[in-house]
Amino acid sequence: MITTRPQPTTRKPDTAIYERRESAVRSYARSMPRQFNKAEGAWMHDNQGGRYLDFLSGCSTLNYGHNHPVLKQALLDYIAADGITHGLDLHTDAKAAFLETLETVILRPRGLNYRAMFTGPTGTNAVEAAIKLARKVTGRELVIAFTNGFHGMTLGALACTGNAAKRGGAGVPLSHVAHEPYDGYHGPDVDTADLLERRLSDPSSGLDAPAAILVETVQGEGGLNSASPEWLRRIAAIARHHGALMIVDDIQAGCGRTGGFFSFEGMGFTPDVVTMAKSLSGMGLPFALALFRPELDQWSPGEHNGTFRGNNHAFVTATAALRHFWGSAMFQADIARRGTLLERLLETMAAEHGLSTRGRGMMRGIDLKSGEIATAVTAGCFERGLIIETSGAHDEIVKVLAPLVIDDALLSAGLDILEICIREALAVHYGVAAE
Amino acid sequence: MITTRPQPTTRKPDTAIYERRESAVRSYARSMPRQFNKAEGAWMHDNQGGRYLDFLSGCSTLNYGHNHPVLKQALLDYIAADGITHGLDLHTDAKAAFLETLETVILRPRGLNYRAMFTGPTGTNAVEAAIKLARKVTGRELVIAFTNGFHGMTLGALACTGNAAKRGGAGVPLSHVAHEPYDGYHGPDVDTADLLERRLSDPSSGLDAPAAILVETVQGEGGLNSASPEWLRRIAAIARHHGALMIVDDIQAGCGRTGGFFSFEGMGFTPDVVTMAKSLSGMGLPFALALFRPELDQWSPGEHNGTFRGNNHAFVTATAALRHFWGSAMFQADIARRGTLLERLLETMAAEHGLSTRGRGMMRGIDLKSGEIATAVTAGCFERGLIIETSGAHDEIVKVLAPLVIDDALLSAGLDILEICIREALAVHYGVAAE
Amino acid sequence: MITTRPQPTTRKPDTAIYERRESAVRSYARSMPRQFNKAEGAWMHDNQGGRYLDFLSGCSTLNYGHNHPVLKQALLDYIAADGITHGLDLHTDAKAAFLETLETVILRPRGLNYRAMFTGPTGTNAVEAAIKLARKVTGRELVIAFTNGFHGMTLGALACTGNAAKRGGAGVPLSHVAHEPYDGYHGPDVDTADLLERRLSDPSSGLDAPAAILVETVQGEGGLNSASPEWLRRIAAIARHHGALMIVDDIQAGCGRTGGFFSFEGMGFTPDVVTMAKSLSGMGLPFALALFRPELDQWSPGEHNGTFRGNNHAFVTATAALRHFWGSAMFQADIARRGTLLERLLETMAAEHGLSTRGRGMMRGIDLKSGEIATAVTAGCFERGLIIETSGAHDEIVKVLAPLVIDDALLSAGLDILEICIREALAVHYGVAAE
Amino acid sequence: MITTRPQPTTRKPDTAIYERRESAVRSYARSMPRQFNKAEGAWMHDNQGGRYLDFLSGCSTLNYGHNHPVLKQALLDYIAADGITHGLDLHTDAKAAFLETLETVILRPRGLNYRAMFTGPTGTNAVEAAIKLARKVTGRELVIAFTNGFHGMTLGALACTGNAAKRGGAGVPLSHVAHEPYDGYHGPDVDTADLLERRLSDPSSGLDAPAAILVETVQGEGGLNSASPEWLRRIAAIARHHGALMIVDDIQAGCGRTGGFFSFEGMGFTPDVVTMAKSLSGMGLPFALALFRPELDQWSPGEHNGTFRGNNHAFVTATAALRHFWGSAMFQADIARRGTLLERLLETMAAEHGLSTRGRGMMRGIDLKSGEIATAVTAGCFERGLIIETSGAHDEIVKVLAPLVIDDALLSAGLDILEICIREALAVHYGVAAE
């Protein structure tokens, strides 16, 4: 039987070392002032005996939960045997196993013919590599990204990111990217794919011919906006028609979070390039890749590189994760079922408070219509032992990113806490007594 | 007794999976077509029983050798105990231990007062963070970098990198950076610090007031050019005088490679910002940080972030490495001695062939004056079981990046192989019979 | 009585000198291969005795016709008296007279309080100065321009121009400008001011806070698209609300072309900055200025300059033009009446052929829905002695830019020629016999 | 006999209209607070009867003096005959005459085969066109300009300009240009052509392959630095070797100012592109052109344009100037002689005060080593009726830009005033009693 009760601690830990030595840029540590020391599955433990249910999952980096035993054992065995830890981009058994597993478990069954590029092991590096490649292949500079898109913090990826506070950190104007309205951005009556098509077809629109259209199927940081398959197919067709590459940034929405291994499965189009990171290693190890059609693989050797581009520990855990979770249809069926459960529970909760939900699969949230309220909700959750965060332009969406493998009872238990905190926060905000 | 004889295999492994599924961007795997499966200390093993002496060390990422037993055990213990693997930037025991060790073992003994920013765990992310911060703090855009500098592949860091082939991969013009001549670039008679000072002091020089001066003390990728302490002090003074931050990119030259933990120790200046990566985790795990004076820590929470910015496995191995190697003066003394040995052996070798050496500490090379010859040398070495690579604008420098902990006998054995291959390559090239 | 019959020549002149010595960039000379030597009012004469009715008017630079006798005499007198021709930005009688006339004849009656900046004497220089000032005053970089906007050919103004062929000439990516949809761009059901407001109000839209919104009230080069007063008021309000300057580029639409001296008169908003050129000197002499509210006049002396920024000949003719045409209400009433006549005649013509018209005041055209047809029309007109040109993203609009002072009979005569040529071109194109 | 005595007025004119209506960007009018109304030859007259000797000549725009009678008469005749004033880029008699005269009087005798592009009629427009063309022809982005270079105020040309105050006016970072040290910039012992060659030949220098090298032979605004023929030939060779166009910006130094019609005549190299403006029209009318080798004339029709690109009045006066001054060898001989006289007089003056001179031909100045002193000198001169200005990064050079046609006695008289003012200013500054 699963114990579903979080047991948060109330004593704040000593943070002097962080104040003295860690940059003020730290963020999550501020709203969750505990020092963690252990984690397994959906649980995180702090060093004062507290236990927290994790509905953040490293922003979808821990889709299989913390320290999944299968992955953990694979890694322990590998390290114990002195497997290659760091090998630049040299061939290793671990890399070969990963590529073969990717091919047989993921690509072939989905009829996809991609090559894998191991970029530096962070999402932003993968995005940088993807847009470099698009610019190289097309000989064009402009990348079209979308409102509320989030793609990373290095200069090339940051230019594609919509968030003004992040953009402001650049210290230089961000160039060579245009942000166009995402699906639904201008309400249900405006087809934003039409707007884009109109501008790209007009030689006097001021929008230069693009190298790439870079899109998330669900905007994880931007508020869980979810694009319809029709709209995504239109974008794919527009990209093809105008000689641009379609890049799907699947860093947050991929690896099962929205149901399939790729978030665009079954939608009737195939991206030219896909970027992956976060849950790709399965266990939270730094790992990223860009996948693209072989014809696009026009790199010169070493034209884009990076010291940690072959993170062999991540190869090991990623291979184990692909085999364990994606080797049969069971996992995917389980996510589908659980995603429906989550949808139902969230919808009920939202309906009760006159709110609406967002997202798809196991990547869903509830729109509190106010960053202030949403932040009060997540703070309340944390006090009750639930780790959960906000999303959206105004931090107004409370985002449920539970592990995909979470037990249904735990999922419900966490949502119960969420419901209580929403009720309280709304009551405080609107001056109504909570029951 | 140490066995010093490499035993390379001659059979090339099956590479079909790489050709089918890995991007053409792979580079080292082309000149070293083996599949490796195990490594310890200075040795790498391939999956057909071959054994290779590693004088590349992951481009200085494996300063303590492969899978050092102390680090390995610390990591095994941590994983076995379900320590936090991935925690975004949440406080963890592993992070606190790292920060405390950094403070007590590294910063305090050196009289340095820095704060640590855990950027995305690759060198280029650390450089991006450093130049963002410099631009934010100064309100200026221009970064001054140097000829032959190498700082990374993402758009902001790539703009600081000198190499034309890498720059060409950007697909957009690289902006907001000026490259000025490095120490010695224009020969011994031209003081390039003077040139820079002249231009920055002239309001009509066309060189805008800089946010930062970004410099490597030894240019690892750019040909092992080594700046003199005098020149670096001048650069530090120029930066200060003109209101710019001095950023030392210590990603390759730091962590003992040039002798001290920082490559600038004992030179009489303190950088405003230092970037670290490569050997920082000790075991080759992705890890990077930017260090800066507390007054410069003007980040807003989350203004620069990244999913893998808290790589707890790397905290663990980095902490173990700091304690094990830097906790006493022995290691540093050992590097100093071994660096002198390397210098002597390389100088002798160079003198014999009318060549010259480059570099400092355990980061030295020999100038073959031709990329063709140097590549022939490294190819010859690999056939004899020595992994070694070139550097420099024309790949003309053969670069010895042996593990810092290498046994002297092994170091000599490797250099013997190098000497044979140089002799052969020169003979072939200049048509002289090798002895 | 006015002679209204053009008498074109059929012999093409010797163009050897142009082929030998003039750049291939020349354009109008290709479709109108005559050598002109004389002009007065609405007429141009070639050197073989031909006479052409001018419905191009130097792209609205000759609103008062060629060599208007009042302006001509003023200039002759000034030159004969050795008036200052070139005086950099020194005070001259001519400049003082212009400023005083601008104040009394134009600004005061309209309740406008602007300062005049004499930029280099071309429209693009005025636009460059305007956006520089906006960036300086606001401390922001981004300028919002509109689809189909045309603002000039120098790098700053070209970035604001929508036309892809012109943009392509830059040879570098054009930065720091976003093009948003103009009024009506997405059809009657989409309010593009709403789209803009939505994006600027969203901190995650990827659209940075703008320094300026740069807009033409009628897009002269972009196809005679005419913005509604309501939309322009919205844009003005949006600019104000978001801390941006509203710049009206009145270079082509100003100086009476659309009715008032400024094209935005009577619309209920006041731009922060207005750029003027083309017909400002009245006689076709190079002259441009930027007008702005005194509070915005934050230039340092000489911060933006230019050798010909004080074109005193232009001061003289501009002063004469302001006094002669704008000193009483008669001229404006006359334009209004003639604009209505033009509207009626064009509407009739369009209706007959199932076409539509565009534009406002004396700045109107007819949409041939095909650049090929429109070019056939203008070629046919030229053969019959009518100088007229196309506009629009596809050159699909035939644009009537007759002198504002043209006699009604001449206007009708020119439109008769246009009607014949449209009939012929449509017949040829659609295979129908022309009557 | 020539009257050589200036008669300045002391009463400052009423400047209320300027303060009320002219932008604060005005500059010369501040240090020369008079209102001028008439000018001929070397003389300017104010509206209170004052007379000033003009050693500024519109910054070398009035090389033939104010309102030269031959040019003036040609213009009066043209206007009186209703010659085309404004004709966009249509062929006109005036344009044909200019092109033919340019060919026969200037190009053929010098063995130059250039095509003429009539850009917008200001120097900055010509520079913009030149660098656009270079980028288009080469497919590269980077332009190499030089320290202290001055090329204009629009965004493309401003990026090539060295002056920090002007650059700061841009409000955006200036990109795609690198400033390299001009001849002599680093003192007599550093060959800056060598420095440039070294960097361009090094694939890791960070200096991208350039589209163009843009250079003035004498830096008019940058302090009258004069490049040696040897250095310029090296630059020409470097440009050719590296596939870049050499653009000579002859806007200030051309039209006889340094002796020949082009400032590079007789130096043993031929630029790929030459930009001209300022004195090109002869009478101070706005006029500019770019000249380039026919093979480079790869413009599409209209790819770069501008409303005033055919300033026919300027064609008329420019043609008259070419014929009158350049039709025989006399004028050039006269400049040479007078330039030598100027050199001798300035050298004597400089020697007396321990100062040095700068420049070439009739483009010379004296280095006061302090902007404060130099400004005191020019202020003193103005009080005595001599219009003269400073130049250089610190405004430390007093620049003699007398009309080329000035009578020797007048030249001497002006220099006498200058000498007195230098003596006084030095005395005040260094606390020595003036004699």
Automatic annotation (TrEMBL), chains A, B, C, D:
Pathway given in the UniProt record: Amine and polyamine biosynthesis; ectoine biosynthesis; L-ectoine from L-aspartate 4-semialdehyde: step 1/3
Q: Does the keyword Transferase apply?
A: yes
Q: Which UniProt keywords apply?
A: Aminotransferase, Pyridoxal phosphate, Transferase
| Stated name of the protein | Diaminobutyrate--2-oxoglutarate transaminase
PROSITE patterns named among the record's database cross-references:
AA_TRANSFER_CLASS_3
Identify the Gene3D superfamilies for this entry: Aspartate Aminotransferase, domain 1, Type I PLP-dependent aspartate aminotransferase-like (Major domain)
Q: What is its EC number?
A: 2.6.1.76
Question: Which co-factor is required?
Answer: pyridoxal 5'-phosphate
